Amino acid sequence: MEKPGEKPLLKSVFTGENGDVEEDCSEKFPSVGPMLTSKLGGFCNRKFIFKRLPILQWLPAYEARFLLEDIVAGLSVGLTVIPQGIAFAVMANLEPQYGLYSAFMGCFVYCVFGSCKDLTIGPTAIMALMVQVYVGSLGANFAILLTFLTGCIILMLGLLNLGFLVQFISMPVTAGFTSAAAITIASGQVKSLLGLPGRSNEFVDSWINVYEHIGQTKLWDAVLGFTTIGVLLLLRSLRSKWSLMGKYLALSRNAVVVIGGAALAYYCSTFGSKPFSLTGTVTPGLPPIKLPPFTTVLNNETLAFNEMTSMLGSSIIALPLIAILETIAIVKAFSKGKSIDASQELVALGMCNIFGSLVSSMPITGSFTRTAVNNNSGVRTPLGGIVTGVLVLLSLGLLTDTFYFIPKTVLAGVMIAAMFFMIEFHAALEIWRTKKVDIIPFMVTLVSCLLLGLEYGMLIGIALNICFVLYMTSRPNIDQALLRTSSGIEAMVVKPDQSLIYSSIEYLKHEVVKRTDKTQVTTVIIDGSNVSYVDSTAAKIFSSTIEELALRGRTVLLWNWNRSVRCTLIRLNKVQFHPLFKNGGLEQLDKEICNESLP
After folding, report:
1. Is the N or the C terminus of the chain less surrounded, counting Cβ atoms within 10 Å?
2. Cross-strand bridge partners of residue 599
């Protein structure tokens, strides 16, 4: 079966009964054997290895002067990911150390498999929220298994070169999803910011919880939380001030407020006072390296692998989709116009999750905040991720006692301040200014994600956007012009602006017949210069269109159709279509119309 734009497999030309030279339009089915041999052979050659292991490309070209910049960038990202990792684990209803377990392996693995120097892989707010929705009540083992399954699915998609699938997720849907996620995450942190009880992280439930417990607000938690947000916004504004000092103070702002909050809580504890809700004990030491839990015990009942996956439900599909969406969107944003290999990024992300599951990580993906920090710090190669990973490991081994005193309200403030800049108001304005109809999938995705949940909202947005695309392909624009020949014969020229497939051909038939009846011309010329592909359904209905026009006494000419489309139509009905095809300029067309009009 031929693809759009491809030439069919033609044998030769031959002479017909009337002496005219005719094309042999027979079609051969593509040979599967050579195609499989070519694809499978590519797994063993040097080019494939270099493509799938980008470190073999950038490491030999590494220069000594890059080292200092990579170290500085790695430290900056590390100071950001440590407090964020703890906050994300708390958000996911996991113990704080799981956030740090999730923060180092992705850095090491992406250094080998990743192709974007700026991207950092680790825990993110959106993934933490998704984990909380699905496994917050089931325990850490489900989160770790979900990490493994997410990695396997993403890796499979990457190896099958299915990275192109992300092209079906449009910018309005992405912007709506990201904005809804930011609003949901910030809403879920309001309870911790105010020191309220409750565990809900959904948008509607979060505000219901705040409304029901607002009277239990803890004054000092609220004061420290709002102060944290204010300090973070102030430090962020110093990025372009005070030269180098202001830049790095702004980049390490999360670490500054967390260290300050922990120091304040510790100081108060020396007087026997505990004015803030604290993170609590963080298990010290490095995580054990072991296989993901394929069985677990829940409520004194042993669950097998199939029972665990059944309980995870749609998250097995939703999390890989969202992880891919986040990573590809970030890589596109920081590629600076360079082409990206989406399939390779899927391979890298899948490997990060698979290896992460061996050290008790929750699902991880690309982080926009830390990638921006990495870029602003002047990172030169993915080697900066090694420095970040080492810093996280050192914190696990040496600083866990300090993490006990981190106030929860400070972590909530860190999360809320980060979410301010994830809500894409600018994208909404840009969409409205560029193409107003695209605001519909943006708003539908945003509202659906807020009311129904992120995974359902994302699917609804994608489905709506695909409906838009299907509608557009089913309604081709048809240019119309009236042509008068030198002999005074009037003809109507219609020109569809796209290929003809089963979804659009009925519309074309209806329009051509309607316009022919309206103009009362005797000759209809269908210009196929924009038609590069016709499927079997379209060919059949196109044949009936010509028959219907013939019954109305109209002559039909097919002008400037390419060879691939001509062969498709001729294979359906050679007797009907072959005499209708005409090529050339207007003078030649004029002659053809006159000839067809002769009795």
Report:
1. C
2. none
In 249-397, at which residue ranges do the beta strands (DSSP E only) sit?
296-298, 301-303, 365-366
Between CA 186 and CA 91 the distance in angstroms is 11
Task: Please answer whether residues 120 and 77 qualify as being in contact, where contact means their C-beta atoms are separated by less than 8 angstroms.
Answer: yes
321, with CB counted inside 10 A (0-12, 13-18, 19+), is: buried
Give the CA radius of gyration of the chain.
31
Q: Which among 418, 466, 457, 469 is positioned nearest to 177, based on CA atoms?
A: 457
Asked if 132 contacts 187 with a C-beta cutoff of 8 angstroms, the reply is no
Distance of alpha carbon 361 from alpha carbon 416, whole angstroms: 23
Give the integer Cα–Cα distance in Å for 254 and 506.
59
Tell me the three state secondary structure of residue 283.
coil
CB atoms < 10 A from the CB of 188, how many?
28
- Give the residue carrying structure tokens 């009277």: 215
Partners of 495 in beta bridges: 479
Q: Alpha-carbon distance 548 to 559, whole Å?
A: 19
d(CA 539, CA 464): 29
Q: What separation in angstroms does the CA of 272 have from each of 253, 266, 408, 454?
A: 29, 10, 19, 43
48 touches 347 (CB < 8 A): no
- Cα gap 574→568, rounded to integer Å: 10
E-strand spans in 531-580?
A: 555-559
Alpha-carbon distance 560 to 558, whole Å?
A: 7
599 residues of the chain, pLDDT tens digit each: 444 444 443 343 433 444 444 556 666 666 666 656 655 555 567 777 888 888 988 888 888 888 888 888 888 788 888 888 888 888 888 888 999 999 999 999 999 998 888 899 999 988 888 888 777 678 889 999 999 999 999 999 988 888 777 777 788 888 888 888 888 888 888 888 898 887 666 788 888 888 888 988 999 999 999 999 999 888 887 766 656 677 777 777 877 888 899 899 989 988 888 888 888 777 888 899 999 999 998 888 888 999 999 988 888 988 998 898 888 878 877 776 677 788 889 999 999 999 999 999 999 999 877 887 787 777 888 898 999 999 999 988 888 888 888 888 988 888 888 788 778 888 889 999 998 899 999 999 999 988 888 778 888 988 898 898 888 888 889 888 887 776 677 888 899 998 888 888 999 999 999 988 888 888 888 988 899 889 999 899 989 999 998 888 888 888 888 888 888 898 888 888 888 888 766 666 666 666 665 55
Distance, in Å, from the CA atom of 565 to the CA atom of 209, rounded to the nearest integer, reads 62
Contacts for 597 with CB less than 8 Å, ≥ 6 apart: 487, 489, 522, 523, 555
Q: What are phi and psi of 194, to 5 degrees?
A: -100, -5
pTM recorded for the entire structure: 0.75
State how far the Cα of 544 lies from the Cα of 521, in Å rounded to an integer.
19
